[in-house]
Amino acid sequence: MTTSTPAHAQPFEDVLRALNVQAKEGLGQNEVRARREQHGHNRLRKAKRRSAPAILLDQFKSVVLIILAVAAALAFAFQEWPEGIAIVAVLMVNGVIGFLSEWRAVRSLEALQKISKRRVRVRRAGREQRVSVEALVPGDIVILEGGDLVPADLRLIEANNLSVDEAALTGESVSVSKRVEPVEADRALAERTSMLFKGTTVMEGSAEAVVVATGMATELGRIAELTEEAEPELTPLERRLNRLGWRLAWVTLGVAIVVAVVGLLAGQPTLLMIETAIALGLAAIPEGLPIVATIALARGMWLMARRQALVNRLAAVETLGATRVIFTDKTGTLTENRMTLRRVLTPAGDHQLDVGQIGEGARPDHAAGGQADDPLLKRVLEVGVLCNNASLSDANGDARPDVEHGDPTETALLWAGDAFELRRDELLERKPETREVAFDPDVMMMATFHQTDDGQEVAVKGAPQAVLEVCEVIATTDDRSEPMSEQGQRYWLERAEALAGEGLRVLAVADKLVQKTDEEPYQALRLLGLVGLLDPPRKAVRESVEACRSAGVRVVMVTGDQPETARAIGREVGLVDGDHAEVMHGRDLVEPDLLSVEQRERILKTAIFARVSPEQKLHLVRVFQDNGDTIAMTGDGVNDAPALKKADIGVAMGKRGTDAARQVADMVLRDDAFSSIVAAIQQGRIIFGNIRKSVMFMLCTNVAEVFAVALASLVNAPLPLRPLQILYLNVVTDVFPALALGVGKGSSHVMRRKPRDAREPVLTRSHWLAIGGWGLAIAACVLGALATGLLWLRMEEPAAITGSFLTLAFAKLWFVFNLRDRGSTLLDNDVVRNPWVWGSIGLCVALLLAATYLPGLSDVLKTRPLASPGWVLVLALSALPMLLGQTIRAIQGRRIRD
């Protein structure tokens, strides 16, 4: 189309002229071929797949691993084969673990390609035929019926009782009635009622329409492009570990240069300085850190899977623990994605309904709050069941129905009737349907005629304003009525507007008795009352929102639904208070670069955003991320995919979510329960705390190695540790206690704390000061063991080095108890209660004895058996840092209690 006016704003005749096609003829084959050459096939671009080699390569992008690779290269260059082979083994173990965990990585848009494998009815060269969806071109005349998937973006030419489910594209929770008449050019996507969009589903009715856009030019294609363009953010843990890695790299390089220069100036042999540099590099780098982080996160994945949360990317496990804001969709996330009857207003009263879940079969007295014996209420429900095209069926052989078919609004009326034992099949046996007048968007009503002993009973439902205009009387009881005055019409219209203001979808219900089926259905009706329907909140959502609030996490609703509906749900789940809470409309959202300071502040304070487009969701994510917030985005539709990818962590719904949303997300909730997100936040916080303890454990002892080796080399003393001994400690004995800390259950108070600052590193300044202090303390014990063994116990150098090696090793094991939480006691803390810690200590003691006494291994590590005085020295000096740590913790605990 060449005109600048969009298709939805033009009469369909003008659209046909612009496309040079006649509705009754369609395109000729030559024209189809020409347009296909111009526009291409009607399909979306295939998403770029991450190949297996690419996934494997990603496992080696850590700075820590790059440093290890350099150390391995140096070892091989100087023919230090055992050291080089050992380092390569460490690299490969980490790579394999990460590769296997991420093999199920994102396949972001592949699910959308399935849409193009269907066939569709078109009119070409004056006759109908079925062609592949991929073969459609702009100008094709498409014929659709209920159940069909819309194959492209279409401008309606004819529409008969047409309603379309657009939830996956727009977030609209109910089917949208479509009509041929054009709408304003600036209407939001969800309000373009003259259009059908690729990927949506025709619920009922039939239509003829002309193709106006195909492939990537469709609205679905625009979302696909947004998803491709949305760069996935590194998770906070990835950013923190990268910063830590670079800091370690510079520290290692600086220490190695200083020691090498001083040693060479002092006349030390060059080969000895190379060996010392390798030893320092191995000592400074916590080789086990990537493995510990990977396994801790993998265990987090497993624990989350038990809580119905499937994680696609390891580092995403921790991200929710740092989350400050959760952007949640309304339909299917906060709500159940099904309509239920909540209110019935009759002249006799205002009934609050609680029908219960599908298939539960709530009792009538419970459903109506004790008012089930009101005959006018039952009459309203009876008319709603009779004037209906939906159905309920039994799929499991039970006595009650458990499957629904048809428009959600009509199935909600059937479920309400079922709760009151007003079942459609039984009613139709007593009152057979003799005529149906289908819903007409022009009159906004539907009617059915039913045979009774007294004549033809007419059941009518529709838009309140339309029904009230044709009602002459109003029911006072089931069999009595009084005239409807203009004042009465205004009263009931105001009540309908009040219900709509509460976010309910409102219908008016009426009836009358006639003698013939050919009489006009919409004249001289009797008003029975109003019904209000709502997609209800999911169970436990309110409690989950409160849990988020107590944990310092904001929950923000971002939906494509109407503002009134969004406000009503927000009020019910506790997002906002009062009936007049601010809801920001999508039309008020502009690109972040164009926002004023006042607009930005308003956005950051708003809890509900309604009528939001996919592009605007991206804008919201960016605004909050620019504010320094870590963002989690939940969603289930195709329209959510770009924002799910852009957010720090995307959370898709597993049951009701589209394949596109599930595959682009970092985490999928199998039960669609918002409460699972709260459990994930708790687990994420525990994981980060555990990883921080593991890093502290490894770095405190690794810095001790650096200090010990550096000080010994500067005073021209024998090195207290050999390179392979350092690697053995860092990879074997370090990893098991660090893993035990990494898989601990964590503190029970973790959800009472505020989220961490997104810019907070894994280790803060106080942590680094503690690492330096503990490193000096442990290094002093190691050098003390070496000096005592050489000068006092008169050991040979290999035996004395074995003593310093074991002193460091056992000091590492005992040091784990210094990492208990502040305020905990010596015998009651998260470390002591962790059975994995005790198991790891026992295993490491066995490995250290093997390193000392097992032939072959002791030869490679160049260790010697120790006599009793040597073991007394090792155990005494290795225990000193733990005793000092417990004294410090006891003082801190006393201060906290005071």
Structural commentary:
The structure is a single chain. By secondary structure, the chain is an alpha+beta fold. It has 32 helices and 26 strands. The strands form four sheets. Strands 10, 11, 14, 15, 16, 17, 18, 19 and 20 form a nine-stranded mixed beta sheet that branches. The protein has an eight-stranded mixed beta sheet with strand order 8-26-25-24-9-21-23-22, sandwiched between helices. A hairpin with a 4-residue loop joins strand 14 and strand 15. Helix 8 packs antiparallel against helix 9 and helix 9 packs antiparallel against helix 25.
Brief synopsis:
This protein is of the alpha+beta class and 898 residues long. It is built from 32 helices and 26 strands.
Which labels suit this protein?
single chain, 898 residues, alpha+beta, Calcium-transporting ATPase, cytoplasmic transduction domain A, Calcium-transporting ATPase, transmembrane domain, Calcium-transporting ATPase, cytoplasmic domain N, nine-stranded mixed beta sheet, eight-stranded mixed beta sheet, 32 helices, 47% helix, elongated
Distance between the termini: 77 Å
**Low-pLDDT regions:** 104-116, 357-370
- Radius of gyration, rounded? 35 Å
Q: Please identify which CATH superfamily of the domain at 234-309 and 680-897 we are dealing with.
A: Calcium-transporting ATPase, transmembrane domain
Helix content: 40-55%
CATH architecture of the domain at 234-309 and 680-897: Up-down Bundle
Number of strands: 26
State the secondary-structure class. Answer: alpha+beta
Name the overall outline: elongated
The CATH topology of the domain at 234-309 and 680-897 is Calcium-transporting ATPase, transmembrane domain
Proportion of strand residues: 15-25%
What is the CATH C-level name of the domain at 234-309 and 680-897? Mainly Alpha
- State mean pLDDT (0 to 100 scale): 82
Largest sheet, strands/sense/barrel: 9 strands, mixed
Oligomer: single chain
Number of helices: 32
